[in-house]
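Bumping with the actual sequence this time:
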Amino acid sequence: MASTSDFRNGLVIKFNHDLYSIVEFQHVKPGKGAAFVRTKLKNVKTGRVLDNTFPSGTKVETARVITIKHQFLYKDDFGYHFMNTQSYEQVTLEEGLINAPHLLLEGQEADILFHDETDTPLNCEIPSFVVMEITYTEPGVKGDTATNSLKPATVETGATINVPLFINQGEKIKIDTRNNSYVERVK
């Protein structure tokens, strides 16, 4: 158990029969009335963010979670298979637990969040930026850099990303996995 004075960013609490991570919090002491804590809570499983206000001193139940580095092995009909990089144990995750499954390459590392008491995986975060090679896109035209026009490009995993017109097939690009957008060309 923890009280509102123990709140910190990243703390995982049990709230409304689910696990939530504290994204942001603010202690408020109004001139009139009792103090309270305004929070933004992110559901660990779904990623949905909600605002909630706790009266100051409220007791909440904390959940112990651990993040373990895993390496992506392969995908099949049963799900996505990952291997713990220290113990070499394997775990299979369903697609809904991974933040950007269409950008997973074999051998890529990811952080899997486990509930410490039940040892069940809660979610999987791949790195914020990945570098991938373009396998297909329409040819670029020299000098086509004046406008912010975009064209679709297929990357190694089969995902389609919108890229600027000057990007060609065979080039490597950096992709932001949080919003599936082109960041820059990589040499």
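The tokens above came from a reply further down the thread. The CA atoms of residues 161 and 180 lie 7 Å apart.
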